[in-house]
């Protein structure tokens, strides 16, 4: 029993003890913190395609450190978790969708898909940046730093995960991230012609290309491979390479060029056709 407390005080203390400590800090030290209105929270939920059981968790996702008495009360911890969840989501998508890609190639795509610029772009495109709560000093700036928008994307991802699990995260991210991954593949990773050919013919014919060795020559330590590729029964110009992988990549490029998927620039370098 707590001595010297009025019944109303005792009731208050019991209620507070049932609340997680991070929320107590938020309630007790930030009484004047600008919070999102119920209409704004509803707007955020609509953007995120998720109805939160814990609306205070969603509220926290939009609180920048400049508006809190302590950074522990801001969205920075959520941002930390959201960064990891976004990375996991993107890595899994790339791993499953591009089975021919090596670790280095997948890393390059991931770096583009989870970059700060990408995260900021997502927040701005869907309108999350309009809901950021910042301190008075930052409110006077004509344009807020893009890093704030990027942080909001990561913090709301964490809030989605904590409230609705990975299903909620996928529902929000899938239509936003998948096109970015595809764009990264087409613009910066077109030299993996085998993967591009695989996707193209799967979409067009529902089959996979088949590669076959036409000829090998040279000693074991310096062997050359002549490899051709067939797509749906049609053969394309074969190619020589110092390894099977190199010859297959070149043969795939020849096939893509014949199909009009790849064009050559003035210097003979391959480009993805518009």
Supply the CATH class of the largest domain: Mainly Alpha
- Rg on CA atoms, Å: 27 Å
Count of alpha and pi helical runs: 11
* Name given to the CATH architecture of the largest domain: Orthogonal Bundle
Helix content: 55-70%
Summed over residues and divided by their number, the pLDDT gives a mean of: 81
Uncertain stretches: 1-31
Distance between the amino and carboxyl termini: 76 Å
The total strand number stands at 6
Query: What is the third-level CATH name, the topology of the largest domain?
Result: Ribonuclease iii, N-terminal Endonuclease Domain, Chain A
Strand composition percent: 5-15%
Taken together, the total number of domains comes to: 2
Biggest sheet features: 4 strands, antiparallel
Task: List SSEs in N-to-C order.
Answer: HHHHHHHHHHEEEEHEE
SSE blueprint:
Elements (H helix, E strand, L loop, with lengths): L6 H11 L3 H9 L8 H11 L6 H7 L14 H22 L5 H11 L2 H11 L9 H4 L6 H43 L4 H13 L4 E8 L6 E8 L2 E2 L3 E3 L2 H16 L2 E3 L5 E3 L2
Antiparallel strand pairs: 1-2, 2-3, 2-4, 5-6
Written account of the structure:
It is a single chain. The chain is α+β, with helices and mostly antiparallel strands. It folds into two domains: 32-188, Ribonuclease III domain (Ribonuclease iii, N-terminal Endonuclease Domain, Chain A); 193-272, Double Stranded RNA Binding Domain (2-Layer Sandwich). It has eleven helices and six strands. The protein has helices at 7-17, 21-29, 38-48, 55-61, 76-97, 103-113, 116-126, 136-139, 146-188, 193-205, 244-259, and strands at 210-217, 224-231, 234-235, 239-241, 262-264, 270-272. Strands 1, 2, 3 and 4 form a four-stranded antiparallel beta sheet that branches. A two-stranded antiparallel ribbon has the order 5-6. Helix 6 runs antiparallel to helix 9 (146-188). It is elongated and about 75 Å long.
């Amino acid at each position: 029993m707590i001595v010297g407390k009025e019944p109303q005080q005792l009731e208050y203390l019991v209620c507070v003890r049932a609340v997680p400590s991070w929320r107590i800090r938020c309630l007790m030290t930030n009484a004047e913190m600008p919070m999102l209105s119920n209409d704004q929270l509803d707007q955020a939920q609509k953007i995120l395609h998720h109805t939160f059981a814990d609306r205070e968790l969603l509220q926290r996702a939009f609180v920048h450190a400049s508006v809190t008495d302590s950074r522990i009360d801001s969205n920075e911890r959520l941002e930390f978790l959201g960064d990891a969840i976004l990375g996991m989501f993107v890595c899994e998508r790339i791993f499953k969708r591009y089975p021919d890609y090596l670790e280095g190639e997948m890393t390059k795509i991931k770096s583009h898909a989870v970059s700060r610029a990408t995260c900021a772009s997502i927040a701005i495109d869907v309108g999350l940046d309009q809901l950021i709560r910042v301190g008075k000093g930052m409110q006077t700036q004509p344009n807020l730093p893009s890093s704030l928008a990027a942080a909001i994307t990561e913090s709301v991802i964490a809030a989605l995960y904590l409230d609705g699990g990975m299903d909620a995260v996928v529902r929000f991210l899938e239509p936003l991230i998948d096109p970015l991954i595809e764009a990264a593949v087409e613009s910066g990773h077109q030299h993996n012609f085998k993967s591009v050919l695989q996707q193209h013919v799967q979409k067009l014919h529902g089959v996979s290309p088949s590669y076959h060795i036409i000829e090998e020559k040279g000693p074991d330590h310096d062997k050359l491979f002549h490899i051709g590729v067939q797509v749906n029964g049609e053969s394309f110009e074969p190619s020589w390479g110092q390894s099977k992988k190199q010859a297959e990549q070149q043969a795939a490029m020849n096939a893509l060029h014949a199909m009009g998927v790849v064009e050559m620039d003035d210097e003979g370098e391959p480009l993805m056709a518009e």
